[in-house]
Amino acid sequence: MKTYFILFFTFLFSNQSIAQNLRNEQVVKNVVLAFQDDFNEGGFKRAKFYTTKDWVHINPGGGITKGRDEVLKEVRTVHQSFLKGVSLIIESITIRFLTPTVAIANVVHKSSDYELPQGVKHQNERQMKTYIIVKRQNKWLLTLDQNTVIAGN
After folding, report:
1. Is the pLDDT of residue 98 over 70?
2. Integer Cα distance of 101 and 119 in angstroms
3. CA-wise closest residue to 97 among 36, 37, 35, 20
4. Residue 129, number of CB atoms within 10 A of its CB
5. Which residues contact 90 (CB under 8 A, 6 or more apart)?
6. The dihedral sign for the CA sequence 91, 130, 93, 43
7. Of the residues 15, 83, 86, 135, which has the fewest C-beta atoms closer than 10 A?
């Protein structure tokens, strides 16, 4: 009888843990989707709701911008120029929890075509974007994103 109680409670708590992980995974995915929605819209108007104040952005050229206000200046500038009207769609997403309060999302995005100011055309481009998302005050927030063009598209 004692063994049955132990097995019952082990099963009960493991199912609750799995359900919690699935909920957290969906919330982390929602942060990625919020970023993608803002990227596609171009103005990043909702960024304060899903990013940390110390957000770090690493662009495909290797530039590093720190702090939400500075990142927003940068991304809004490029989205008003050569990235105006450019959109992303998710091809695949993998989420891993490094700790109970830190998740990493690796996302393959397909980008619509665009041209850099120097005349370099980007067509049928796929990008690997890495998002680090942290749980602060019971809310999951983007704290770092890094974007790399996948070679050999």
Report:
1. yes
2. 42
3. 20
4. 22
5. 32, 33, 36, 107, 108, 109
6. negative
7. 15
**Distance in angstroms (rounded) separating the CA atoms of residues 115 and 35:** 22
For 125-149, the pLDDT digits (tens) are 999 999 999 999 999 999 999 999 9
Q: Is 74 helix (H, G, I), strand (E, B) or coil?
A: helix
pTM of structure = 0.83
d(CA 62, CA 76): 18
- Which has the closest alpha carbon to 147: 65, 69, 81, 76? 65
| Amino acid letter, residue 60 | P
